[in-house]
Amino acid sequence: MTRDDKAFDDILQQATALGPLPMAVAHPCSREALLGAVEAADHGIATPILIGPRSKLVKLAEELDVDISRFELIDTPHSHASAEQAVSLVREGYADILMKGSLHTDEFMSEVLARNTGIRTDRRISHVFIMKVESYPRYLFITDAAISIEPDLMTKRDICQNAIDLTHALGIARPKVAILAAVETINPAMRATLDAAALCKMAERGQIKGAILDGPLAFDNAISHEAADTKGIVSEVAGDPDILLVPDLESGNMLAKQLTYLAAAASAGIVMGARVPIVLTSRAEDATGRLASAAVANVLAHRRRGASQ
Q1: Residues 6 or more apart in contact with residue 30 via CB below 8 angstroms
Q2: Which of 57, 19, 61, 63 is nearest to 41 (CA)?
Q3: Measured CA angle at 159 (ends 249, 240), to 5 deg
Q4: Residues in CB range of 1: below 8 A, 6 or more apart
Q5: 150: helix, coil or strand?
Q6: With 80 as the cut, is the pLDDT of residue 248 above it?
Q7: In what order do the strands lie in the sheet with 97-100?
Q8: Model confidence, pTM
Q9: CA distances to 152, 167, 234, 244, 245 from 192, in Å
Q10: pLDDT tens, 38-63?
Q11: What per-residue confidence (pLDDT) applies to 1?
């Protein structure tokens, strides 16, 4: 199987039409990280501000035969300083998008979440994978597979609302959220099933807005009408979800990587809940995935700008 390089073309076209926004890129000192930023500029999606050791970035650009003289470059001594400076640019209103380069997620996110100097909001921060699988008719949004290790109920509420807000920005007016567990019935011994039931009731009471929720749902009956029908599940969501809300980081991370490596799914990754959209991909992610993520961040940032005006 090969990944579809055109999987995110509709979002790329939308971002290009909206126009570039300033994007702080923290420590793009690997081939894929630097090329992702350069391609975002070449597609008219972002105006990158490269933050990292100048000598290392210049040498890498020469090796890749790319021109980075057209970009602002802020010289920093190491990756921690790069993350700190990138977050500072967002706080000062100098950048509308933040992108992680070739540094550890923990190191990067510690600056994002710093109590006095970070860019957190009242909402919990969470990650959303946007995935395009050939066998599924539209995008699947999987959350949270990168930040919240074992989220409690109220964290899951924010994770859910963050993903809903992202789908709204991408034009999905009323997304369907499948809240995953190992089974589709409530079992007091399985916390994921209790959380799923509570989240559905929270949606009914307006604590989660803008979507249709159902759960608990096992993965088979969440994603397949046939499996849901076999088990007699009557649901607006089963077999037709936009968002898959996973019980914890481990299950979500395995699900996303299985789709990537076994089903050749194309993916983008965005962190929600901060002051600006954050492009957060694996250090192993190729430039195409980083470009798609930047396009999603561009659309989201433009929607936020419009809402605040």
Answers
A1: 60, 101, 102, 283
A2: 19
A3: 90
A4: 134, 263, 264
A5: coil
A6: yes
A7: 72-75, 46-52, 21-26, 97-100, 278-279, 266-272, 126-132, 140-143, 243-245, 176-180, 212-217
A8: 0.93
A9: 10, 23, 20, 13, 10
A10: 999 999 999 999 999 999 999 999 99
A11: 44
